[in-house]
Specification:
Elements (H helix, E strand, L loop, with lengths): L2 H17 L24 E3 L1 H9 L3 H13 L4 E7 L3 E6 L5 H12 L13 E6 L3 H16 L3 E6 L6 E2 L5 E3 L2 E5 L14 H9 L21 H22 L11 E3 L5 E3 L7 H24 L3 H15 L16 H23 L9
Parallel strand pairs: 4-5, 4-8
Antiparallel strand pairs: 1-3, 2-3, 6-7, 7-8, 9-10
Helix pairs in contact: 1-3, 2-3, 4-10, 5-8, 7-9, 7-10, 8-9, 8-10, 9-10
Amino acid sequence: MTPVELSRTVLHAVRCAVDEGQLSVAVPERVVVSEPGAGGCGEYATNVALQLARAAGKPPRTVAEILRPRLIAADGIEDVVVTGPGFLNFRLGQEVDPLQDLVREIRAQGQRYGHGDALAGQVLALRVPYEVRAEVVADAVVRIVATQGGRATVEHQGGRAAVQHPGGRAAAEHGELVDLRPVPAPEDPAPLGPDAARWALLHPAPHDRPRITADHLVQREGNPLFRVRYAHARVRSLGRGAARLGFAAEPGPLNSAEADPAGTPAFQAPAPQAPAVHAPALHTPLSDYPRILTAAATHRAPDRLARHLVTVADAVLPFLTCVLPIGEEKPSAAHRARLALAEAAGTVLAGGLSLLGIDAPEHL
């Protein structure tokens, strides 16, 4: 809670006390809150009870005690203590920002974010035909299964025999035997190069026929692979730009706001594309990543991971325009927080691409 918000909360408490007949005063236009003086406590204090006491015909402490229950009930205020002749002292609660917590979690775990133990102890034997798409899908599944504590090996059809369980699922002697038979590629994807070829084979669902076309190579918005890799490269570029400006990423509020001594809001001018417009769109794709990774491992479906990376890229790209200061704007805590959020998205993109066996470029 900012001083401006606290001032408004105090005014609201005074107005409620007047409306309910506990105080008979004219509600002031504004209330000044400041740091507690000698004998005070908490983060902020106000002398509003002393200002209203004469008009109310009551001692200042009585006015303060009338306001105190209403103030304690307000969101963001943990406690209110009356000190001295009637000063109201505020201890503010710690506001929970799930987006900040998520950014800190991703920064702490790095590319291991989303890893878990959903398949701990499980061993899978992936049986695949001699076909390029099946080979690539199996290679990605091995890595994705490992993120959830499992282990997978690859065998080709004609290898060891499967054992049929009563439930109808095949199992091998040393683990569950899983048939991977995605729709084959219509032609050799090698001319696309390793990254585009893998994307062309992994991005479609297993029952869809992959497109082996030069569209996977074009650098434009219509190419999902380009958007994913471009978003990662942009994030890395912003980190280099921030270093040149002398600041680094640090999780925190994405917008700067404070009050001047008179209690009037003095907001730092935001970038033209206000981050508050785009940042909430990032929370769900980033927080969903562990669930998507678990589903991709459980269902042996790297296409789920590939499509989710497109969702992350599409959410972060509009946000990147307001990460660095613009024009004469100076780097602030808000810019550090925006960079931290952008880098968290970049970490998810890099980790996901790595699991698919695709390079996450520093430059593009």
